[in-house]
Amino acid sequence: MTNNTSTDNPQQKVGSQLTPEQRKEELTKCILSQYRLCAAGTIGGAGFSVLRSQSVRPTAWPMLGGAFVGTMSDFVYGYFVECASLREGGDSDKKS
Q1: pLDDT of 18-42, one tens digit each?
Q2: Closest by CA position to 39, among listed 66, 12, 18, 76
Q3: DSSP, res 14
Q4: Is residue 35 within 8 Å of 95, Cβ to Cβ?
């Protein structure tokens, strides 16, 4: 038998079951666990740098720029899409 009373799965405890402190912690964990777009931006920047190396000396700036844009995109995507259920749970209390 398993004990399902722990906070292993925050998606099951969305709503009034989480305290505001727990909701903030779970939202932070959820947002910081996003990495897809950062990896894609880094790989895309590295590929651009390699393709551009035939005409110009290659630099790390395209890769760093892609990583920065990807990281910001991960934060926005995580906040509005992936972690929306945690975010909206806290907003419903303030609308009353």
Answers
A1: 888 898 899 999 999 999 999 999 9
A2: 66
A3: -
A4: no
